[in-house]
Amino acid sequence: MRRILSQTALMLPIIALAGCGEEPVEMPYGTAQQFMANEVQPTAEIYWGAVGAVSELVDGEAVFTEFEPETDEEWAKVSAAAVKLREFGEVLASPAYADGRGDDWLQFAQGLQDVATQAEEAALAKDPEAVFEVGGTVYAVCTACHQMYPPAELPEGETVDTVQTDANRPNTDETLEEYMEGSGE
Ligand code: HEC
């Protein structure tokens, strides 16, 4: 018995060494969780926050005011966010984040790249309706991946469907007009 124990003890350092010799996997943005929380989410929020409506009480009545980017500079920030989302889709498809996941992971990562391209086109066209609608599709792509690869820990009160967005936006297949009508209810 003692002998077996000491052999085991001898083997441990070898195993530990083998662990050290592995190629370090480069994760440019940290873990998937950090990448999502620090990069993907804030960038998507820039896009989602670009077009929408705010309600204000005027003489006791809710009045909805649509907002959209006004200046070239503001529009440029929206298209830049879309470009970043496409890059993030590429990062997600890289081995650092894709290794050990199923084939569907690569499809979701590709889906993000594709929708980000549409998102950029909408911003370059300075088309608020299109930005709003593509924003809904972006959201659907995020959610599709999260349904298969759910976040390990969700903030309290959040579900997979609500975690990555504010409460009133985006609804995946709504037009800006429908959204405005909906918020008037
Ligand atoms: C290819 C798959 C994939 C896509 C696409 C994807 N995510 Fe994620 N996301 C993940 C995974 C995996 C996690 C869970 C990470 C963990 O908890 O280990 C996650 C977690 C998150 C979280 C929770 C982070 C936290 O603090 O725990 C947020 C927020 C998030 N994603 C936002 C987004 C947004 C916004 C998009 C779309 C623009 C998106 N994700 C697209 C895979 C994806």
From TrEMBL:
One of its GO terms (biological process) is electron transport chain. GO terms for molecular function: electron transfer activity; heme binding; iron ion binding. It comes from Alteraurantiacibacter aquimixticola. PROSITE patterns: PROKAR_LIPOPROTEIN. Residues 161-170 have a biased composition (Polar residues). Residues 1-18 form the signal peptide. Keywords: Signal. InterPro entries: Cyt_c/b562. The keyword Transcription regulation does not apply. Residues 174-185 have a biased composition (Acidic residues). The keyword Cell cycle does not apply. Residues 157-185 are annotated as: Disordered. This is Cytochrome c domain-containing protein.
